[in-house]
Amino acid sequence: MEPTSHSALQGGDAGEQVLDGHDRARLGARAAEAARRLAGDGIVAVALTWVDVSGITRTKTVPVERLEHAAAWGVGMSPVFDVFLLDDSIVSGRHIGGPSGDLRLHPDLDRLVPLAALPGWAHAPALRYAQDGSVHPLDARALLRREADRLAGDGYAVKAAFEIEWAVSDGGGEEFSPACKGPAYGMTRVTELAGYLRDLLESLKATGVTVVQLHPEYAPGQYEVSVAAEDPVGAADTAVLVRETIRAVTIRHGMAASFSPKVEADSVGNGAHAHLSLWRDGAEGGAVNAMAGGPGPFGMTAAGEAFAAGVLRRLPALLAVGAPSVASYLRLVPSHWSGAYACWGLENREAALRFVTGAEGERATAANLEVKCVDAAANPYLLLAALLAAGRDGLGAGLGLPEPVDVDPAALTEEERAARGIAPLPASLAESVAAFEADAVLREALGEAVTDTVAAVRRGEIALLDGATPRQVAAATRWRH
Question: Model-level pTM?
Answer without folding.
Answer: 0.95
